[in-house]
Design goal:
The chain has 128 residues and is mainly alpha-helical. It has helices spanning 3-24, 36-41, 45-74, 79-102, 105-124. The chain crosses the membrane at residues 84-102, 109-127.
Length: 128
């Protein structure tokens, strides 16, 4: 299995790290698991932003997964290039979450655009 495929798995799991921060920071998550969506809507500050980072991570995931799969199937770009772009995307998503939780709005937007650039690069790199 390629590094790019492993990056898809990491991208699938990453939103749950943000959810964990949102739910369990302060120790309230376990007893609020009966209505987790209602509970997450009541959060504020860094915990609320972690929840939003989780939502955005799920929203961008299909595009990234499709880009990796298409790049792999097309085989018009070297595997090392596909792997490098996929890894850059995953790292950008980790940094995106950190920026979101820390409330660094401008940095978060820049990192988001970089991640989208990675997705576009996977498509463009396979347009051979």
């Amino acid at each position: 299995m390629t590094l790019a495929f492993w990056c898809v798995l990491v991208a699938i799991l990453l939103p749950f790290a943000f959810t964990g921060f949102a739910k369990f920071q302060g120790g309230f998550g376990l007893r609020e698991n009966h209505n987790p969506r209602d509970f997450l809507d009541t959060l504020s500050g860094a915990r609320k932003r972690a929840h939003w980072a989780q939502q955005n991570s799920f929203e961008i995931l299909p595009g990234f997964a499709a880009a990796v799969i298409i790049a792999q199937l097309a085989q018009t770009a070297p595997q090392g290039t596909i792997d490098g772009i996929a890894l850059a995307f995953v790292l950008s998503r980790v940094l995106y979450g950190v920026c979101y939780i820390a409330d660094w709005a401008s940095a978060r937007s820049l990192v988001w655009f970089f991640g989208m650039g990675c997705i576009i690069a996977l498509f463009v790199g396979t347009a051979g």
